[in-house]
Amino acid sequence: MIVLGLTGSIGMGKSTVARMFADEGVPVFDADAEVHRLQGPGGALVAAIEAAFPDTTGARGVDRTMLGEAVFGNPEAFARLEALVHPAVAEARAAFLERNATEPLVLLDIPLLFEAGGWESVDKIAVVSAAPEVQRARVLTRPGMTVERFESILARQMPDAEKRARADFVIHTDTSLDATRQQVRALVACMAGRAGG
What we know:
The protein has helices at residues 14-23, 31-39, 46-52, 64-71, 75-99, 132-140, 147-156, 160-166, 177-196; strands at residues 2-7, 28-30, 57-58, 61-62, 105-109, 124-129, 169-172. By secondary structure, it is α/β, with parallel strands linked by helices. It has 2 domains: 1-27 and 105-197, P-loop containing nucleotide triphosphate hydrolases (Rossmann fold); 30-99, P-loop containing nucleotide triphosphate hydrolases (Rossmann fold). A hairpin with a 2-residue loop joins strand 3 (57-58) and strand 4. The longest helix is centred in the middle third of the chain and has 25 residues, at 75-99.
């Protein structure tokens, strides 16, 4: 089995690309979706997050806006949150890999693959990238997003140029969806060939 790590900075189109891999039959572990599950109603992290960050949860699980305000601009609080979230996500990822052990190729969709050290546990890395102006335009259309918040998120992420330099593959998304899908298909064919050989 080849474990392909997929990453990319905010607004680069990583979620769209991950869905394209899934459309090609590749099992996908979505770290963000797992975080949402862990923090959703009845999620395994809700009680621990409430204990660490009072008044950030409710009947619907973690209130992401309230939690964001509790950690935004506070590196110590952010580190405390990561210390809760990262081990739980790692456990879910290990279970995913075990369930899919006979697959020739699996995809780990991990936004902070380089920043959190996850790159050490994958065989190959694909980075999703787009021109800075395309990235900025995409992100600033998101509900509740401000220039300040966008720049704060970027400051915590490895620069796109460095990610591209460290990647085995770069998937460009500042093009048509069809062109992006062709890049994904080519990469799946390449990886499937390696897994078979």
